[in-house]
């Protein structure tokens, strides 16, 4: 059973964020576009967001955000979707302990379409994948990655229907990083956690060499569905600046880096710096399929690589190492400084033969902490 401290969930499109940045808006953050695949609602006029922020709830306390790495339902995990409500039950306690939990869903979702020709790995899951994530405690899933379109654009109608239903379910799941156009793909999922507004943006900046993974044509555009591709980060950085105007905490989840590398690339480090300067409080990512360093960068907190989390094979001792990174963010106050992470703690885990992460103790947990310190050395981050 999940206990959550949030009171509303919104999906904020780029158009609204632009209004918040360029002049006095005519709508509040509540007047937003629906999630991908839903029917647009008639907007309502609300007070300008330039008005003073409301006083935080009396019970407002630190906001707990949990982030995990790559999840899909291949191999031994596929049969678990026969009962979506319990598919990820063994990790539900670890995932649901935070106010807000964010993960990368590394698969196409829906029905129809066909596997992308020439692609070595093509992952697929039915709409019940969203149910499984929500039931286990995940609140936001990014699909901005190199497997979201493994079964082509022919699957998109089914994907967007599933996204809409997931957002409307009793246990809602917001999906970011994918959309019917670029505005939807770059839209932020926004949660109100006891008066603190937390926005999550998903984007992919992973190498999209068509000879390896033909995802160069997967980018959403003004008139084409796809994922949020930020190989040119200008739009992503602009979106973070806009989101900073309407949110207290901005989280950016990226698909980036070089597979198999334990240290972040120079491009990752440069983009992380730019994102923090633009207003991101938390920048996390995946794609290397193993942990990379995490720590403080200026006013932001960075976790370059979260590794795999629910994966078809444990791999070796390095790729099987995973965990839940829990970040504690101070609540909104009248202090003009941006919110910041005041505590970061990992729950060390390993992926087992069944594809699921299991919490480790003893020497393995000790080794995890030592490895984390080692990884930080090549990341340029502070404890």
Automatic annotation (TrEMBL):
<dbReference type="Pfam" id="PF09587">
    <property type="entry name" value="PGA_cap"/>
</dbReference>
<protein>
    <submittedName>
        <fullName>CapA family protein</fullName>
    </submittedName>
</protein>
<feature type="domain" description="Capsule synthesis protein CapA">
    <location>
        <begin position="64"/>
        <end position="313"/>
    </location>
</feature>
<feature type="region of interest" description="Disordered">
    <location>
        <begin position="358"/>
        <end position="383"/>
    </location>
</feature>
<feature type="region of interest" description="Disordered">
    <location>
        <begin position="22"/>
        <end position="61"/>
    </location>
</feature>
<feature type="signal peptide">
    <location>
        <begin position="1"/>
        <end position="27"/>
    </location>
</feature>
<dbReference type="InterPro" id="IPR019079">
    <property type="entry name" value="Capsule_synth_CapA"/>
</dbReference>
<keyword id="KW-0732">Signal</keyword>
<comment type="similarity">
    <text>Belongs to the CapA family.</text>
</comment>
<dbReference type="InterPro" id="IPR052169">
    <property type="entry name" value="CW_Biosynth-Accessory"/>
</dbReference>
<feature type="compositionally biased region" description="Low complexity">
    <location>
        <begin position="39"/>
        <end position="49"/>
    </location>
</feature>
<dbReference type="InterPro" id="IPR029052">
    <property type="entry name" value="Metallo-depent_PP-like"/>
</dbReference>
<feature type="compositionally biased region" description="Low complexity">
    <location>
        <begin position="22"/>
        <end position="31"/>
    </location>
</feature>
<feature type="compositionally biased region" description="Basic and acidic residues">
    <location>
        <begin position="366"/>
        <end position="375"/>
    </location>
</feature>
